[in-house]
Design goal:
binds manganese (II) ion, about 325 residues, globular, alpha/beta, Arginase, Chain A, eight-stranded parallel sheet
C-alpha cells in the first residue's frame, strides 16, 4: 500500500534542488494504491494559434517546487488524508493527434480503473476529450466546471473535429457531460457570430461571461453553481486563459478583460463540497511566460484543486 507522501520540504533540500516532480512528491509508475495522481500531458498539436503548451507540464512542475503542503487560507491539509504521487507524463505521439487522443484515453482508463483521481498538467485543451471519455466509463455523464476565455464548443476548426477549440462540442455529442450540470466561467473576447455562446446555453450549460465577473467576488457565484451541480460527479477543467493575460500571459490564445488570480482561487475553493472526480489545468505555454508566473499560478491552482478533492471514504 502506498504511503501518505509529503512533498519534500524546503528545510530538507533547497527548493531549487531535488526532484522535479509536481510539488517534489515521489514519482510513481503506477496509480495503484494512490488516491490522487498528478499526470502531465505534454501535447500542443491540437492548438490553433501560439504553440508551446507541450512544455507546460515540465515548467509547472518546476514552479511547483515553491509550494508547501498546507493551505493557509482554507486550512486544507490534503497530504494528511490523501495518498498522492506524480505519475509522470503520458507518452503521446507528437506527430499524430488522433493517435495521441487514443493514447491519453487508454492511459486515463487505467488510472481511473485503479480508483485514482487524476489531476492533469496540460497540454492544450484537446486533452480533456479523451479524459472525459475515460471518466464516462466509471461515472457516466459528469458535471463540469469549465474556466476559460473560450467556450471550446466549435463544431470544427479548419475542418478538424478534434482540436483544442472543439472538445466540449464532442463531449456533448458523445454523452460525456450532463448539460444541466455544466458551468462555463470567464468566456469573452471577439467572436465569429453573435451566437457563439448561445450553443452551450442551448445544451443547458450555465454560461458566465467574464464581464459579469468584473469587480466582484465569485464566492456568491460558486454557491449558485454548487446548487446547480448538486451531488453527482464533477470534473474541473481550467484553461489558464480564463484568467487575464496580466496574470497569465504565458498561453496560446490570450484574451483581455479576464478573471483575476484571486477570482481563480475563489472558483476552485468554491468547489469544496462537490464530488470532484478529476481536474486539469491546461494551456500554459512557457515560451510566452518569461517570468514563470503563469506556470507558478498554474501550479498553485492545481494545489488548490487537490485541496478540494473529497476525503470521505478514502
Ligand atoms: Mn481558452
Ligand atoms: Mn480552452
Amino acid at each position: 500500500m502506498a504511503d501518505y507522501n509529503q512533498p519534500l520540504g524546503g528545510n530538507q533540500m533547497p527548493r531549487f534542488g531535488g526532484p522535479s516532480t509536481m510539488m517534489r512528491l515521489p514519482a510513481t509508475d503506477t496509480a495503484s494504491g494512490y488516491d490522487v495522481c498528478f499526470i502531465g500531458v505534454p501535447l500542443d498539436i491540437g492548438t490553433s494559434h501560439r504553440p508551446g503548451a507541450r512544455l507546460g507540464p515540465r515548467q509547472i512542475r518546476a514552479e511547483s517546487s515553491l509550494l508547501r503542503p498546507y493551505n493557509m487560507a482554507t486550512r486544507a491539509a490534503p497530504f494528511d488524508k490523501l495518498r498522492v504521487a506524480d505519475l509522470g507524463d503520458v507518452p503521446i505521439n507528437t506527430f499524430n493527434l488522433a493517435a495521441s487522443i487514443q493514447i491519453i484515453e487508454e492511459f486515463y482508463t487505467e488510472v481511473i480503473a485503479q480508483n485514482c483521481i487524476p489531476l492533469t498538467l496540460g497540454g492544450d485543451h484537446s486533452i480533456v476529450l479523451p479524459i472525459l471519455r475515460a471518466l464516462k466509463v466509471r461515472h457516466g455523464p459528469v458535471g463540469l466546471i469549465h474556466i476559460d476565455a473560450h467556450s471550446d464548443t466549435n463544431d470544427t476548426m479548419f475542418g478538424e473535429a478534434v482540436t483544442h477549440g472543439t472538445p466540449f462540442r464532442r463531449a456533448v455529442e458523445e454523452g460525456l457531460l450532463d448539460g444541466s450540470r455544466v458551468a462555463q466561467i470567464g468566456l469573452r473576447g471577439s467572436g465569429y457570430t453573435a451566437e457563439d455562446f448561445d450553443w452551450p446555453r442551448q445544451q443547458g450549460f450555465r454560461v458566465v461571461e467574464a464581464h459579469e465577473c468584473w469587480h466582484q467576488s465569485l464566492t456568491p457565484l460558486m454557491t449558485e453553481i454548487r446548487d446547480q451541480l448538486g451531488a453527482g460527479p464533477v470534473y474541473i477543467s481550467f484553461d489558464i486563459d480564463g484568467l487575464d493575460p496580466a496574470f497569465a500571459p504565458g498561453t496560446g490564445t490570450p484574451e483581455v478583460g479576464g478573471l483575476t488570480s484571486a477570482q481563480g482561487l475563489e472558483i476552485i475553493r468554491g468547489c469544496q463540497g462537490l464530488d470532484i472526480i478529476g481536474a486539469d489545468l491546461v494551456e500554459v505555454s512557457p515560451p510566452y511566460d518569461p517570468s514563470g508566473n503563469t506556470s507558478l499560478l498554474g501550479a498553485n491552482l492545481l494545489f488548490e484543486m487537490l485541496c478540494v478533492i473529497p476525503i470521505s471514504g478514502k
